[in-house]
């Protein structure tokens, strides 16, 4: 069965590692070098009838040893017959290799799925193994890359969640956009179960499809909604500046079990947290 991917996020620490969320709610970890049996340089170093280009050699790195030499010889023979000077990617495909032999699955691990399509998967900038997911099942989930079950689940509303993003300055802060037209800002240092701030983005409850923090000005977060507007929101000092012991709390959360996370956390001060909106039509941006 073919399942469509709706979310894709790369690790900030290891650019070969990624997480993919599917329309079925399934969630997988993958690697660009999964099932790699030999390097590109190893393919290039092997003598043959004609030299190989780097891109063509890259196609051979995952071919199982039981098929490798036979396929390599067939590709080189086809290249010689076509009077080619080197093996190219076109030469490899021209030899009509079995697709399942050429492209081994990059999936290395599966996670407890959502019950609806997953539309966002984003890694934490403060912890190499943590990533957030957003789904139409109304939940935002926090996963540890090496654990099957989420370490935390929260539902800010009864509507679909289309987007989520981490604060670039606060390890425990993230924002989410929902189908009910609201922007939800979470500060897990103060409460893991309830959003710290809820901002009304659209007057007619049109969905918020995109949320992105400004990496250089962490007090600014942008939203894109179904009305066709991009809006810039300015967060309070409390939500955009590092709090005491925040990194340690995130590290502790990364090793927690979901069953342990009951109730709200009251860490830190109860400062007022609010936002201001500056809106403009996205056609003019």
Automatic annotation (TrEMBL):
Region (Disordered): 260-285
One of the record's GO molecular function terms: dynein heavy chain binding
Keywords, ordered alphabetically: Cytoplasm, Repeat, WD repeat
Repeat region (WD), residues: 111-153
Acidic residues biased stretches: 266-285
Pfam families: WD40
Name the record gives this protein: Uncharacterized protein
PANTHER family reported for this sequence: CYTOPLASMIC DYNEIN 2 INTERMEDIATE CHAIN 2, DYNEIN INTERMEDIATE CHAIN
Keyword hit for Repeat: yes
Compartments it resides in: Cytoplasm
One GO cellular component term: ciliary plasm
Major subcellular site: cytoplasm
GO biological process: intraciliary transport
SMART domains, per the entry: WD40 (SM00320)
């Amino acid at each position: 069965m073919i399942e469509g991917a709706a979310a894709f996020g790369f690790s900030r620490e290891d650019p070969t590692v990624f997480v993919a969320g599917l329309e079925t709610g399934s969630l997988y970890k993958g690697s660009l070098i999964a099932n790699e049996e030999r390097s590109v340089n190893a393919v290039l170093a092997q003598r043959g009838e004609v030299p190989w280009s780097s891109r063509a050699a890259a196609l051979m790195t995952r071919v199982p040893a039981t098929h490798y030499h036979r396929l390599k010889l067939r590709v080189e023979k086809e290249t010689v017959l076509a009077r080619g000077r080197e093996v190219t990617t076109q030469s490899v495909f021209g030899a009509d290799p079995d697709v399942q032999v050429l492209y081994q699955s990059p999936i290395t691990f599966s996670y407890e799925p959502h019950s609806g399509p997953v539309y966002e998967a984003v890694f934490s900038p403060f912890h190499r193994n943590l990533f957030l997911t957003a789904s139409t099942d109304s939940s935002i989930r926090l996963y540890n890359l090496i654990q099957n079950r989420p370490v935390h689940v929260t539902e800010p509303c009864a509507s679909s969640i289309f987007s989520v993003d981490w604060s670039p300055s606060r390890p425990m802060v993230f924002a989410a956009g929902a189908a009910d037209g609201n922007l939800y800002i979470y500060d897990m240092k103060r409460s893991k179960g309830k959003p710290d701030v809820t901002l009304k983005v659209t007057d007619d409850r049109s969905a918020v499809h995109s949320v992105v923090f400004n990496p250089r000005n962490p007090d600014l977060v942008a939203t894109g909604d179904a009305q066709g507007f991009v809006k810039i929101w300015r967060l309070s000092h409390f939500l955009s500046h590092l709090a005491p012991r925040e990194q340690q709390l995130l590290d502790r959360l990364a090793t927690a079990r979901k069953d342990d996370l009951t109730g709200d956390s009251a860490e830190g001060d109860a400062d007022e947290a609010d936002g201001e909106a500056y809106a403009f039509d996205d056609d003019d941006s």
